[in-house]
Design goal:
about 200 residues; alpha+beta; seven-stranded antiparallel β-sheet; about 55% helix; elongated
Length: about 200
């Protein structure tokens, strides 16, 4: 039996895709607020102000022109998310150097959150899957994929359009498949179940 990977619809990935636009919009608004906050600084930096304003407007345009940016434009989405991370980190650094501790720490936390979102969206840009091999089963997930040895699997119920996996800790994973399985693919899953679990 050769290894087999099947594409699934993972709820965590789907939730991240749904909130992706909102997170970009929040970032654009925060960047605009931070840009106009520069007016109150003793040393107003025109270049920094205009860079932030233009980037925030670019992000807003992307948000309003792409309904599902993570699926439609995954590389553009990741590029803008990374830009947001860099801007928040830069703004936080400037505020901390000016000894504006409250706002500086707040933007540092936002930067950390956006770096984490960038990491998750980078994973979400890959295909969600359940992979079968002779050692066990890998299930895509956020923040990291889960691997289960066959000894830790109690039951697998696979159909042409869905799969349910029950672990020895009574955790149940139920997924809809992105495409219907071919007969040969379903038969290979049943072969794995017969061989390692004693049932088809």
């Amino acid at each position: 039996m050769n290894a087999l990977a099947i594409s699934i619809v993972h709820p965590a990935y789907e939730n991240l895709k749904k909130v992706g636009r909102l997170l970009h919009l929040v970032a654009a608004l925060l960047i605009i607020v931070n840009a106009f906050n520069q007016f109150h600084q003793p040393k107003f930096n025109h270049l920094y102000f205009w860079c932030q304003l233009i980037i925030a407007l670019d992000i807003a345009v992307i948000v309003f022109t792409s309904r599902n940016i993570l699926l439609e434009l995954p590389k553009v989405n990741l590029a803008f998310r990374l830009i947001e991370c860099v801007i928040f980190t830069g703004a936080a650094s400037m505020l901390l150097l000016q000894e504006n501790w409250v706002l500086g720490i707040f933007l540092t936390l936002i930067a950390a959150c956006y770096f984490y979102i960038f990491y998750c969206e980078r994973k979400a840009a890959l295909v969600e899957m359940v992979a079968f091999n002779h050692i066990g089963i890998t299930i895509s997930g956020l923040p990291s994929s889960r691997f289960f040895l066959w000894a830790n699997i109690n039951h697998i119920d696979a159909g042409y359009d869905r799969i349910t996996i029950e672990t020895s800790t009574s955790k149940i994973y139920h997924f809809t498949l992105r495409r219907n399985l071919q007969f040969e693919e379903l038969d290979r899953i049943h072969d794995f179940c017969r061989h390692y679990l004693g049932h088809a």
